[in-house]
Write a structure and sequence with these properties.
alpha/beta; 6-stranded parallel β-sheet; 4-stranded antiparallel β-sheet; globular
């Protein structure tokens, strides 16, 4: 006997969270609960404003239609579903079937935001490769280059992941590179999407020797995972891509092409973030995922994130907007 519920949530965010052109005050989304006999599975549907193609309202409407068919015994074809809906429903189904491993990868690449000494302490607690992250492209490219160079000079074993979100023109990207000494460029594990077009990003990598990673490009129509000069990784954000099966396919394609696959969050709640940690431990066990977004929230949801002291909202406290 199948049954399902759809909860709606709103969680307060840190006041400093800005997504492209808007400040994110609350994170809105849906939690799916599937039941079959004694088994239960949860999934999160959370379109990310400014990044997702669908709104929360559109996702909620489609989720209700698909849940209704599932309760009646139909099998899903999620290939044409909205990305966030496909991900949330497929994750709930995976958990329901007992196929999502319980162990998660909760390692976080610390964000470089100030004093290198603070980062040295954080990295000293990190086993294996010393990975840290810097958001670039929001300020002057020259400043970003100087900051990256400073961290690599101060911490020679560091491997920086940089994310420019396609913010630079080729000229600005070159200005960034100019202030990272050639001998320090190997300290950059990769720079995500430096330029506005993939062609310009590929040219940047070949001209500077700084490795790049695809993020937005992974979601472009017609994208194919392939080995290209200067490309070392792809970043997989399941809520923006689609079903867990599609994401697992991308991971396997990346590995076949000799690329690193990084599972990354789209600011899911602690419930969804925990599931992404489990998915990452399963699919990319040797890679630190990009799941360092709990710090942007003021509350958690149902499943606490390890060592996070934020208050936890229970599913029982949420409105059930649909059930059958």
């Amino acid at each position: 006997m199948r049954s399902a519920k759809l909860y709606q949530y709103q969680l307060p965010m840190d006041s400093g969270v800005i997504l492209r052109n808007q400040r994110l005050i609350t994170r809105e989304g849906w939690i799916v609960e599937l039941r079959s006999g004694d088994a239960v599975g949860f999934g999160e549907i959370a379109p990310l404003p400014e990044f997702s193609q669908e709104t929360a309202e559109q996702a909620g409407e489609q989720a209700q239609q698909l849940l209704d068919s599932w309760v009646q015994g139909d099998e899903w074809d999620l290939s044409s579903a909205l990305p966030s809906v496909a991900f949330g429903l497929s994750m709930a189904e995976l958990e329901l079937a007992g196929e999502l491993p319980a162990e998660g990868n909760y390692q976080v690449a610390p964000l470089c935001s100030g004093d290198p000494d603070d980062l040295v302490i954080a990295l000293s607690k990190m086993p294996g490769e010393k990975i840290a992250k810097i958001k670039v492209g929001m300020y002057e490219a020259v400043r970003d280059g100087m900051v990256a160079n400073m961290f690599i000079e101060a911490i020679p074993e560091i491997r920086l992941r940089l994310d420019a979100n396609r913010n630079w023109t080729p000229l600005k990207a070159q200005q960034f590179a100019k202030y990272v000494k050639p001998e320090h460029r190997a300290g950059i594990a990769f720079l995500e999407e430096p330029c506005k077009t993939p062609a310009d990003s590929l040219a940047f990598a070949q001209e500077t020797g700084i490795n790049i990673a695809w993020d937005e490009t992974v979601r472009d129509e017609g994208f194919e995972v392939k080995a290209e000069p200067g490309v070392v990784a792809i970043v997989i954000k399941p809520s923006l891509i689609g079903s867990v099966q599609r994401c697992a396919e991308l991971v396997q394609q990346a590995h076949k092409a000799g690329l690193t696959a990084v599972i990354s969050s789209s600011m899911e709640s602690s419930l969804g973030l925990n599931q992404l940690a489990r998915f990452a431990a399963w699919q990319t066990p040797a890679v630190i995922p990009g799941l360092d977004t709990m710090q942007l929230f003021k509350a958690q949801l149902e499943t606490p994130w390890p060592d996070c002291e934020l208050p936890v909202t229970s599913l029982a406290d949420l409105e059930v907007v649909w059930q059958k």
